[in-house]
Design a protein that fits this description.
- By secondary structure, this protein is α/β, with parallel strands linked by helices.
- It contains twelve helices and twelve strands.
- The strands form three sheets. It has an eight-stranded parallel barrel, surrounded by six helices. It has a two-stranded antiparallel sheet with strand order 6-7. The protein has a two-stranded antiparallel ribbon with strand order 9-10.
- Helix 3 runs parallel beside helix 4, helix 3 packs parallel to helix 12 and helix 6 crosses helix 7.
- The longest helix is centred in the N-terminal third of the chain and has 19 residues.
- The model has no long low-confidence stretch (mean pLDDT 95).
Length: 346
């Protein structure tokens, strides 16, 4: 029993030195970060796509995907703003299973968290500098935030973390948009209390210091569906769900009421092909109701080089966690979203 030290204290400045953005790369990221904030604020009406692998388990495959996605972003940039999911930490309800690159830089190797952190920074850095895309990651461990704060442009607070006070308070001190998911129960109060906490100033102990935050006006909703006590999936992207969420924003006097639909997880029942239908249905709901169109302006899509999932990394670019859309279907879906938006202007 007990906690046992396995390494010396991490030198954060030293760790960051080789993967710090400078010059043109830094300026490009700053420009894209400002564009993202304008989308959240409603000043830029492009749709936001958070898209990429369920987990970034293989550096080579992730970079191949990123290069393809970057070219696609160029084609659709006037209607869609794409941020790549580079998810390097995976929450595990039971604590068992693959926990992401941060734990295992080699999927088939033993946990190696110091080298894992280095790999995480290297991967985000390479995606940004080699493709021009900016990245999103899930904030599973609040203590790891200072290790990637300069690279990641969008953070998510997952269904298992959204009720945790430290996640909420840390989100209030992050200077980039934070998407907060509804919990697995689907309880909207839990999610909106988290957003309220994140949008307001907070005081707490962080890294052995008393800190005060400014509040994060860009904390917002991600709807990911729910699961009931019988293990049944309960989607929450339907028309009435969206109106209820928008009403919550108003009742709680929250600013920048922005809604993202997570097309996988309990919305799809982890059937990756359902993501296509969910996007189409949401676009129809936006067309039908101006209020929905005003507030529901983003999709989260799990996508990789190959369709589906696998238990072992035998197929290059195929998920080892949740099933993903393969590249061909992803490219068609993104172009379909783009064309749908373009047709509305004719």
């Amino acid at each position: 029993m007990g906690i046992h030290q396995k390494s010396s204290k991490i030198n954060i400045k030293g760790l960051k030195k080789a993967t710090t953005l400078t010059g043109t790369f830094l300026r490009k990221k700053q420009i894209r970060d400002k564009e993202l904030i304008n989308i959240i604020k409603g000043k830029d009406q492009r749709l936001l796509l958070l898209i990429g692998p369920c987990s970034s388990d293989n550096e080579k495959a992730v970079l191949e995907y990123a290069k393809r996605l970057s070219k696609l972003q160029e084609e659709v940039s006037d209607k869609l703003f794409i941020i790549m999911r580079v998810y390097t930490a995976k929450p595990r309800t039971s604590g068992i299973g693959y926990k992401g690159l941060v734990h295992q830089p080699n999927f088939q190797g033993l946990p190696d968290l110091i080298n894992g952190i280095k790999m995480v920074r290297k991967l985000h850095y390479r995606v940004i500098t080699e493709t021009g895309l900016t990245t999103a990651d899930e904030l599973v461990y609040t203590s790891n935030y200072p290790l990637i704060d300069d690279l990641v442009s969008y953070h998510t607070i997952g269904a298992r973390s959204v009720e945790d006070q430290e996640h909420r308070f840390l989100a209030s001190g992050i200077d980039t948009p934070v998407g907060m998911k509804n919990p697995t129960s689907g309880n909207l109060n839990v999610m909106f209390n988290g957003i309220y906490a994140a949008q307001n100033k907070q005081n707490f102990i962080y890294h052995n210091e008393e800190v005060e935050t400014d509040g994060n006006p860009y904390a917002h909703v991600i709807l990911r569906g729910a699961i009931n006590e019988y293990g049944e999936h309960i989607p929450n992207y339907y028309y009435d769900n969206l109106l209820k969420v928008i009403a919550y924003y108003k009742e709680m006097h929250l600013i920048n009421p922005f809604v993202i639909i997570d097309t996988n997880h309990d919305n799809s029942g982890k059937n990756h092909l359902e993501q296509i239908r969910i996007v189409r249905q949401t676009l129809l709901n936006r067309d039908w109701n101006k209020i929905i169109k005003q507030h529901v302006r983003g999709f989260m899509i799990e996508s990789y080089l190959e369709d589906g999932r696998q238990d072992k990394p035998d197929v290059f670019g195929k998920s080892i966690t949740d099933p993903c859309l393969g590249w061909k279907k992803t490219e068609l879906l993104v172009k379909e979203i783009y064309q749908t938006l373009a047709n509305k202007e004719i």
